[in-house]
């Protein structure tokens, strides 16, 4: 039987198939909750669920089980009790607890704790999410850069990884990654105006802003430089960082727990468009086209 330990993850390394012993199985009236020692599956975060769970299958004794969801779990070591997603009562690194990836299966399973199962991720789906997620990082940086000189009447204190005023982190209310698409919702409220944003000018010039962002994204895609996920460990809760060489802008690093591309050469193009929801809310869509 495998001892309970934090899940080792390989989803940042584009490894989509592996064998692993089962550490824990829980079930209720609808689902089986399966925890393995190592997994290629990326779970949806219960804290910031912008990046969806991977899709795929578990295989055992020539039978395939569809993984219907993949979520974060926490196990209390004193009791081996599993808490899933929003029911998790502790923060990561709490003494006496380990955080794990939980594979959710509906069909009745024929394997037990200690058995070796095969975990197979849908690589095409994961890579489409990876393109969408990296695209969102790039467009947010380009947005900050385009707004830096012409849309702030005074200097806000916060700057992004490139040194530009960080509109993205100030204004972002919600983000969502879907295949080849990143969707960011921004609020242009009173607080942001007090910090110095000329929100009326931004709304009036959104088409021009989109054109400038798209020119910047085209320049960055043309670099075809590497994207690296720097990992501070192999476990689910170990910190991970998205790194990209943006030419004369330098190598930048953003904390991120999602899956990502390996190179800007994976894009044929990136482009953004905006929707104005109200005078205080806009949405930026970043679309990627696979090379």
Outline the fold blueprint.
Layout: E1 8-9, E2 17-27, E3 32-36, E4 38-39, E5 56-60, E6 63-76, E7 81-84, E8 97-105, E9 116-121, H1 123-148, H2 167-171, E10 172-178, E11 181-187, H3 190-195, H4 199-204, H5 206-223, E12 227-231, E13 240-245, E14 251-255, E15 267-278, E16 281-290
Parallel strand pairs: 1-4
Antiparallel strand pairs: 2-3, 2-9, 3-8, 5-6, 5-9, 6-7, 6-8, 10-11, 11-16, 12-13, 13-14, 15-16
In short:
The chain is α+β, with helices and mostly antiparallel strands and 291 residues long. The protein has helices spanning 123-148, 167-171, 190-195, 199-204, 206-223, and strands at 8-9, 17-27, 32-36, 38-39, 56-60, 63-76, 81-84, 97-105, 116-121, 172-178, 181-187, 227-231, 240-245, 251-255, 267-278, 281-290.
Can you tell me about this structure?
The chain is elongated and about 60 Å long. Helix 1 (123-148) packs across helix 5. It has helices spanning 123-148, 167-171, 190-195, 199-204, 206-223; strands spanning 8-9, 17-27, 32-36, 38-39, 56-60, 63-76, 81-84, 97-105, 116-121, 172-178, 181-187, 227-231, 240-245, 251-255, 267-278, 281-290. The chain is of the alpha+beta class and 291 residues long. The strands form 4 sheets. The protein has a 6-stranded antiparallel barrel with strand order 2-3-8-6-5-9. Helix content is 21%, strand content 38%. It starts with 7 loop residues before the first strand and ends with a strand. A hairpin with a 2-residue loop joins strand 10 and strand 11.
Query: Could you give the count of β-strands?
Result: 16
The proportion of strand residues reads 35-45%
Determine the structural class based on helices, strands and strand pairing: alpha+beta
Rg to the nearest angstrom?
Answer: 21 Å
Widest sheet, order of strands? 2-3-8-6-5-9
In whole angstroms, how far apart are the ends?
Answer: 45 Å
